[in-house]
């Protein structure tokens, strides 16, 4: 026995020696082994300014409570922390799902959950004919509504907190609460962090819109911390080093410039032991909030234009025949650079709660909806006539009603007799444009006889119109721009409708690009709403250094002679400044010397209430207006569109009323700013003069002291 004990102890000592001496260092390194994990923490987004440096979109700080799950944290440990945290804060549990309640019930009642599985099923489990998932699924199915209803409000609060804990990723802070965190909640949690492992108090941010709903549809939205990354773009963002719960731009400017606004994340290296416990945290980089955007928008002008639209829209609604009128749009654009100074739209909607009608922002309608715009396109028609040889500058044609066999009479709004191209633009002759189309289609018109035209004429005219931006994307730096709809029927009568803007549909942004192309003598400029990208200035509403300035981009030069374009420019000038011009009653005598073209289109209603009318939508009139000023040196181009303006003969001229007030507002604001700058310069000069006088007096005083 002694020998046996001695032998066993000898073997034990030998084994310990091998472990400690031979493999000791290896085991020691294994025990002390650590893992370096880099965690990216989000930073606030960049700000958005208008062209004059006014803040449009900012970040407001929010008190926030977060939870960071370590790699080894168990569900039971998280549940204990959630129960403690629930005593310090109030957590909304209205969004807790039934499945979450069942999971929580099983976690809280493990014995009762176990009892829901029969002996036979446990035996199958032991025989590996059922696995853990099968057992858990059976438990979930057998939890009754009565058992779930036993969960108290306190239980549901704990569950809501626990759900937030569980939705996070290891070593990545997860927002538990960042809305309506009271100072008391923030303070008491901060005081008890030692009792709440993984919990921290910090500062989060939320987007603040300085001008309320103005331009909101264009600015876009940012996802919440609950939403995180959009599912349809999950892989894309994860490949760019985003976390799943990161907040990103969901629409329009916020989405289009996500890479600019998102910023550089703060990088933190967390050193963990083998069990996943964090031993040390090192800051690799502090990160930087997103870069700032400076828009081309002038917010003072934007607000003024929106007010004008609101007032004139409500006034127009007081006319008979306007039951379907519910929207109006305005774009103001620099025709030489493509900068959008104003992109305004308003829509009348019914409040679901009160039943009252109210106006909501619909600036996006300028690029996402299209309509028949009427005679506003006649400038492109005349230029197409020059290009194809259908007419020459100064060509006279007879304006008299036209009758194609088997179709209704087609005519101008009044019979004008023998007129030239300038008069046709000034008085908005339809027949003059019809005869251009007939020539392009190589047809021969005879009263009440068939009018065969070549179908290729549709493509010829549309190709020419596209050079101005009609029927094609303008290229504006916003997603989801609409092209418009092209009529598919190529009967001769529809070709005549096409050249007067009553067949294909166009957006108001396309109208703005079209009239800008005429205004700047033939260059189609790409419109853009972002002017500059700038470095952020921390904690200040100031503009940092310019990183990138968006330069004007010419998309094409229209294939027309300069003298042809000047001829149409003269026609546009006569529309607004000469007797009998269709807009002279509103723009005649203006000291900014405008030019432009009015439009009225016979169309069919295609709005939100179209289902009420079945297969026969009512006929409506769309109103439009394009213009620019000054006519000899354009600095501003304008497009106004009022769809479904009226039915019957109740023309309220909302397009002209809006257009006049908008153009007046632009030049009044310009004059006001010039006077303010002049007064500011005079004030600076007076201060400098006073300083010069004071300096001179000081010199005289010193000289007197020396008796000189």
TrEMBL record:
Keywords attached to this entry: Cell cycle, Cell division, Cell membrane, Cell shape, Cell wall biogenesis/degradation, Membrane, Peptidoglycan synthesis, Transmembrane, Transmembrane helix
Pathway the protein acts in: Cell wall biogenesis; peptidoglycan biosynthesis
Location relative to the cell: Cell membrane; Membrane
UniProt-listed Enzyme Commission number(s): 3.4.16.4
Domain of life: Bacteria
One BP annotation, GO: cell wall organization
Annotated protein name in UniProt: serine-type D-Ala-D-Ala carboxypeptidase
Source species: Bacillus methanolicus PB1
């Amino acid at each position: 026995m002694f020998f046996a004990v001695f032998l066993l102890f000898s073997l034990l000592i030998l084994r310990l020696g091998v472990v400690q001496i031979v493999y000791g260092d290896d085991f020691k390194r294994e025990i002390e082994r650590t893992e370096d994990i880099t965690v990216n923490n989000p930073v606030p987004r960049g700000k958005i300014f208008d062209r004059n440096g006014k803040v449009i979109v900012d970040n407001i700080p929010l008190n926030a409570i977060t939870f960071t799950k370590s790699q080894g944290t168990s569900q039971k440990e998280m549940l204990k922390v959630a129960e403690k945290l629930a005593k310090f804060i109030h957590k909304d549990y209205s969004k807790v799902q039934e499945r979450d309640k069942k999971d929580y019930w099983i976690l809280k009642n493990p014995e009762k959950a176990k009892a829901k599985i029969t002996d036979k099923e446990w035996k199958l489990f032991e025989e590996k004919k059922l696995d853990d998932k099968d057992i858990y699924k059976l438990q979930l199915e057998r939890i009754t509504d009565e058992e779930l209803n036993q969960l108290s409000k306190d239980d549901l609060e704990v569950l809501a907190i626990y759900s937030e804990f569980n939705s996070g990723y290891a070593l990545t802070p997860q927002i538990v609460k960042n809305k309506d965190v009271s100072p008391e909640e923030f303070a008491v949690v901060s005081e008890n962090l030692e009792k709440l492992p993984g919990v921290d108090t910090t500062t989060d941010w939320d987007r603040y819109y300085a001008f309320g709903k103005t331009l909101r549809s264009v600015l876009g939205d940012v996802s919440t911390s609950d939403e995180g990354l959009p599912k349809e773009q999950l892989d894309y963002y994860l490949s760019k080093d985003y976390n799943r719960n990161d907040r990103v731009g969901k629409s329009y400017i916020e989405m289009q410039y996500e890479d600019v606004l998102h910023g550089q994340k703060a990088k933190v290296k967390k050193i963990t032991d083998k069990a996943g416990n964090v031993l040390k945290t090192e800051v690799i980089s502090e990160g930087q909030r997103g870069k700032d955007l400076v828009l081309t928008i002038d917010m003072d002008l934007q607000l003024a234009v929106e007010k004008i639209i609101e007032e004139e829209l409500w006034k127009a609604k007081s006319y008979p025949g306007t039951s379907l009128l519910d929207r109006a749009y305005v774009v103001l654009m620099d025709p030489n650079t493509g900068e959008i100074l104003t992109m305004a739209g308003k829509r009348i909607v019914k409040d679901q709660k009160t039943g009252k009608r109210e106006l909501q922002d619909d600036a996006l309608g300028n690029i996402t909806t299209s309509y028949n715009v009427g005679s506003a396109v006649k400038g492109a028609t005349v230029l197409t006539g020059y290009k194809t040889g259908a007419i020459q500058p100064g060509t006279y044609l007879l304006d008299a009603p036209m009758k194609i066999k088997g179709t209704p009479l087609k005519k101008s709004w009044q019979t004008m007799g023998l007129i030239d191209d300038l008069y046709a633009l000034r008085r908005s002759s339809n027949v003059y444009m019809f005869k251009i189309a007939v020539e392009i289609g190589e047809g021969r018109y005879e009263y009440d006889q068939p009018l065969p035209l070549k179908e290729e004429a549709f493509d010829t005219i549309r190709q020419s119109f596209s050079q101005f931006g009609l029927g094609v994307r303008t290229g504006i730096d916003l997603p989801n721009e609409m092209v418009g709809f092209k009529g598919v029927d190529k009967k001769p009568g529809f070709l005549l409708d096409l050249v007067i803007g009553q067949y294909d549909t166009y957006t108001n942004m396309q109208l703005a690009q079209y009239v800008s192309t005429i205004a700047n003598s033939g260059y189609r400029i790409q419109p853009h709403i972002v002017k500059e990208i700038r470095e952020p200035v921390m904690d200040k509403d100031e503009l940092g250094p310019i990183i990138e300035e968006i330069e004007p981009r010419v998309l094409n030069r229209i294939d027309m002679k300069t003298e042809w374009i000047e001829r149409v420019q003269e026609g546009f000038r006569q529309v607004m400044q000469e007797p009998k011009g269709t807009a002279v009653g509103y723009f005649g005598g203006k000291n900014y010397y405008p030019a432009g073209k009015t439009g009225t289109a016979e169309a069919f209603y295609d709005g939100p209430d179209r289902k009420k009318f079945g297969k026969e939508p009512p006929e409506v009139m769309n109103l439009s207006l394009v213009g620019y000023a000054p006519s000899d040196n354009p600095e501003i181009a304008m497009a106004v569109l009022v769809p479904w303006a009226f039915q019957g003969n109740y023309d309220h001229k909302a397009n002209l009323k809006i257009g006049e007030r908008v153009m007046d507002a632009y030049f009044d604001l310009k004059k006001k700013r010039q006077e303010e700058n002049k007064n500011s310069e005079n004030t600076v000069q007076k201060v400098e003069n006073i300083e010069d006088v004071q300096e001179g007096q000081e010199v005289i005083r010193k000289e007197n002291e020396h008796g000189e």
